[in-house]
Amino acid sequence: MRRFLIAGNWKMHLVRAEGMELVDAILEGSVGMPADRELLVIPSFTLLHTIAERIGKRALGLGAQDLHWEASGAYTSGVSAAMLRDAGCEWVLVGHSERRDHFGDSGEVLGRKLRAALAALLRPIYCVGEHLEEREQGRTHELLDRQFHDVLDGLAPAEMQRVVLAYEPVWAIGTGRTATPEIAQETHGFLRSLVASAYGQGVAAETRILYGGSVKPENASELLGQPDVDGALIGGASLMAESFLGIAQAGGQHTSGAQKRTGKT
Ligand code: 13P
User: Fold this and answer.
1) How many angstroms is it from 112 CA to the middle of ligand 1?
2) pLDDT 10s digits, 29-88
3) How many helices (H) and strands (E) does the chain have?
4) Strand stretches in 45-200, DSSP E
5) 0.70 exceeded by the pTM?
6) Residues with beta carbon inside 6 Å of ligand 1?
7) Which residues constitute the domain of residue 17?
8) Per-residue pLDDT tens digits for 201-232
9) How far apart are the first and last CA of the chain?
10) CATH number at residue 240
């Protein structure tokens, strides 16, 4: 059974005192969270050490928003996978659309980043998603297929099992325009079929696929209720403990797609 993963991407927000206040409130509010969900915060690089110390041994994951593909070297501003591990991270985002669109991360670069993350035993959350124009032109599947294969082809099945996918339609990010549950389910189902073709049904059934794009407590239950939606990658609403925890508590008991389809819960 796939556990929900509820991840808060803080993007370029919050200085240290604000980050500590938020993580304290999340830690306090997440006591007694149902066992079928896992929570994760993804602060900026400068907050990682502090937040890791604050979390200590408690049940809240920590991830970074990006990494460099080389292990070390003359790459001013680069942050390596080993540095992220050293700062207390277990997770890292790869391929967020803001990296692709504002920093020019290509499929080739993202493939190297993903492999660097895996080599350092970080768990990558690989983000894919189409722009509005691509959806309107009926090119969503073509684009997702490319984003998937450009970066994920050629992994060992055991490596793919450590990758989480995130579907983040760019037109839904920070716009208040959430994908409908039907769009989310259809697209997640398509992504799962890509995993199945490349890595087999077993890996596909285990792979978690998160939805991201204007997730809020009010729409989380419907989105998380879709059989192939295994969690959320949250931007704006993750900056307040109340809305982040509200999303984390939504969705009721998670049953994986396979179980839902066969009616076994
Ligand atoms: P919003 O939740 O602010 O739309 O951001 C989504 C996102 O980009 C998370 O990575």
Assistant:
1) 24
2) 999 898 899 999 999 999 999 999 999 999 999 999 999 999 999 999 999 999 999 999
3) 13, 8
4) 61-64, 91-94, 123-128, 164-167
5) yes
6) 9, 96, 168, 173-174, 212-215, 233-237
7) 4-262
8) 999 999 999 999 999 999 999 999 999 999 99
9) 10
10) 3.20.20.70
